[in-house]
Amino acid sequence: MNITFRDTVQSDSETLVGIRIAAMRESLERVGRFDPQRARERFLEAFDPSLCRFIEVDGVPAGFIVVRPREDHWLLDHLYILPEHQGKGLGAAVLLDLFKDADAHHMPIRLGALRGSDSNRFYQRHGFTQTNEAEWDIYYVRQPGGR
Fold first, then answer.
1. C-alpha angle 98/83/138, rounded to 5°?
2. What are residue 124's DSSP bridge partners?
3. pTM for the predicted model, two decimal places
4. In whole angstroms, what is the distance from residue 106 CA to residue 122 CA?
5. What does the angle CA 109 – CA 53 – CA 16 come to, to the nearest 5 degrees?
6. How high is the pLDDT of residue 130?
7. 37 close to 48: Cβ distance less than 8 angstroms
8. Which residue from 36, 39, 64, 74 lies 20 to 30 Å from 18 (Cα-Cα)?
9. Is the CB of residue 17 less than 8 Å from the CB of residue 24?
10. Could you tell me which residues are beta bridge partners of residue 84?
């Protein structure tokens, strides 16, 4: 599996929305919150192509990642892998790449995951610890060096 990253541009927004909806559909349906129009609007209102990168496998888009730098941490705002590419180690490989960069900059990584989503177990397996909870989301942090 040859994983590469490609920058996005404004005209990629609808493709990215499609990836987000496909990746989140099952989790959102499980908690009774699947609304493709809402998912589209929430993504587009904060879309910044300079922070977003396609995740490609053998030259084919398989997902995307958005990391928002903050003063004291990096926010992993989006990490979506298309269902047909899930369970193959792609998400783990993307996280390892992100960890190397964050560790080199001594930056914690923070994120929120939908309550009831399989992504909670995924992030916990990769060294994230829970920091807080809200009605729909669980929040995590990974300290530099995996501490």
1. 55
2. none
3. 0.91
4. 22
5. 110
6. 97
7. no
8. 74
9. no
10. none
